[in-house]
Amino acid sequence: RWQHLSDKMQGLLGKILPKNSMYSPMTMAQQHSCNDVLNSMNLQAMTNNGNGWCLFVYNLPAESEESLLWQLFGPFGAVNNVKVVRDFNTNKCKGFGFVTMPKYEDAHRAIEALNGYCLGQRTLQVSFKKAKNE
């Protein structure tokens, strides 16, 4: 089942990210070593909550469930936790959620592939969660 989903995601992502794109998940690992990527990013601005790298996912549809986040992020690597933030009264998604991934490299690939991804009529915004004091 996961392999089928992974193949489907690669097909979808291949349509929105050219294979020779610097940020394509297919070439990211080949073009940048981990140290190059880490050195080019401001790690203090990103949240590693001790369980992994916390990603902020914005512009989710109101009917979004946690299973959607597992399906979107799972093909990029291990996922520790997902959370869809819900309205207390309606129990509908408030339009955003969080995903925690243990490996920086997997989280970075997921951001590069899914930020700007069209989900229905919405365009997702995916980034590392910022520390609250920023």
TrEMBL record:
One of its GO terms (cellular component) is cytoplasm. Residues 53-131 form the RRM domain. One of its GO terms (biological process) is negative regulation of gene expression. It comes from the Eukaryota. GO terms for molecular function: mRNA binding. SUPFAM superfamilies: RNA-binding domain, RBD. PROSITE patterns: RRM. The keyword RNA-binding applies. It holds the Pfam family RRM_1. Keywords: Repeat, RNA-binding. InterPro entries: Nucleotide-bd_a/b_plait_sf (IPR012677), RBD_domain_sf (IPR035979), RRM_dom (IPR000504). This is Elav-like protein.
